[in-house]
Structures are given as structure tokens and as C-alpha cells.
Amino acid sequence: GNRHRTDGPLLAALETSLPFTLTAGQRRAVHEVLSDLRDVRPMRRLLQGDVGCGKTAVALHAIAAAADGGYQCAFMAPTELLAEQHYRALRRDLAPLGIKTALLTSATSTRALQRQIASGEITVVAGTHALFQDAVKFARLGLAIIDEQHRFGVDQRTRLTRKGAMPDVLHMTATPIPRSLALIA
Fold first, then answer.
1. What is the model's pTM?
2. Close Cβ partners of 23 (under 8 Å, ≥ 6 residues apart)
């Protein structure tokens, strides 16, 4: 797996640039995720929380840590609307840090965008099922974040993670189901 840097300048800048203070639960989740990212074993973590509880804020910390090490992140959502919402939020919070973000869906996929992803010019790619299509190549995928992960099949999630060399995986959900819990365990 990848041993990510969790003391880098992007992560430090993110922590000071957020317009809110993390809750105790968010701080605990960030600590656990960053601890996993420091380990050489690939992270396979399920982050469960109600809608609006701050799962994306936790994910931002993982993204910044991966970017500090020169890794790319794929942030997959089950619908174009949710992917667009994540893209706007990620771009808003990561652009001030100099982290370039793009949206990849069946409607936005172009050869030019695919080249930018393959070259590593784009660090974070928010998208839908388009992320794991054969035409999409990553230069250095180190982190895959899968939102509403129960909406994707095992094969689909595996196809995404095979785009990198043993990337860390953060599954996020507001609706855990027994199968989700069993997969993570």
C-alpha cells in the first residue's frame, strides 16, 4: 500500500482554512482516517454518519494528506447530481490550497479531461460510474472515496481501486446496511 504523509503543508493549510471548527466526532474520525493513511496497509474504512454530519469534511482531510504525497483521489458518487454537488464543494475547499479538482460523468467526459487525469494534472476527480471506465487512467491514484457505497456493486468498486496501485479506500454512507458492514469487516 501507500504510506501517506499526514504532516504536510496541504493538510495543515486545510485545517486552518476551513470556515468551521470540527466537532469532537469529526476530529476523532479524522484522527482514525489519518492513522490508517500513515500505515503501509491499504485503508478500507467505512465512515457512517447522518446526512449533513460532516463526512465530506473528514474526507477533505484524507484528500489533503494524499495530495501532500503527490497522489490523486477519485471521489465516486452514484448520481450525476450528487457528483456535481461533491465537485462544487471539493473545488470550493481545495482550490485555495492549489489542489486542482475536476468533474467526470458521462456528460463531462472528454479526451482532454481524460488526458489531464492520466498526466496527473488533476489531483481530485469527482464523478460517477464514468470513473471506472476503461478509458479513464490515473497517473497516481492513491485514494478512492466512494460515497453512498452501497449503491455500487463489489465489481464496480474493485474496478475503481484497480486504477491505482493498492489505493486506500474510504467508503462513506448515511445508510449502513448489514452487507456494507460485513464487507468492511
1. 0.91
2. 54
pLDDT tens figures, 38-93: 999 999 998 988 887 889 999 999 999 999 999 999 999 989 999 999 999 999 99
Using pLDDT thresholds of 50, 70 and 90, give the confidence band for residue 153: low
d(CA 2, CA 4): 6
Return d(Cα 71, Cα 115) in angstroms, integer.
16
- CB of 104 closer than 8 Å to CB of 130: yes
Give the closest residue to 74 by CA, choosing from 132, 139, 129, 125.
125
Phi, then psi, of 74 in degrees rounded to 5: -105, 130
Helix runs in 69-153, H state only? 80-94, 111-119
Strand extents, DSSP E, the chain: 44-48, 72-76, 101-104, 124-127, 141-147, 168-173
Q: CA 59 to CA 79: how far, in whole Å?
A: 18
Taking the mean position of all CA atoms in its chain, how far away is CA 48? Answer: 15
